[in-house]
Amino acid sequence: MPTLLRPATDSDLPTLYQQQLDPEATAMAAFPSRDEEAFYAHTKKIMANELVIFRVIVYDGQVAGSIGSWEMDGKREVGYWIGREFWGKGIATQAVMQLLAIATTRPLFAHVAKHNVGSKRVLEKNGFNVIREDSYTNPAGVLVDEFVLKLG
Prior knowledge:
Layout: E1 3-7, H1 13-21, H2 23-29, H3 36-48, E2 53-59, E3 62-72, E4 75-82, H4 91-102, E5 108-113, H5 117-125, E6 129-137, E7 143-151
Parallel strand pairs: 4-5
Antiparallel strand pairs: 1-2, 2-3, 3-4, 5-7, 6-7
């Protein structure tokens, strides 16, 4: 089943909101979920920003997650979120591959929690390489050890 990226619409937001509430997914991403009001405000701000590439990942006609690219600290970043029911199907790998054709700026950077082996593999399959290890404090106040990856 092919994966498709398309621009996000307001009707996608309830599904994306529910996906980011999943405790196993938030643990894997090492990023806390947002409450409903904060999620909608943040996502609508992203959708309105012309400098941000934000797409919904569609698999078998269903919203499987989201993927995007944005500038942070003068560097172009890539990130994605896959609903847990869609894990292990190669969807993230395909979605990153498709995003790389849209987000053509190089270099591109990605940050992955060290324990998120699957996400690191997705990026490496798409040509990203680990350039360093780092840590940061996430919005929940938790110290997260991470890999920083670079493409190009």
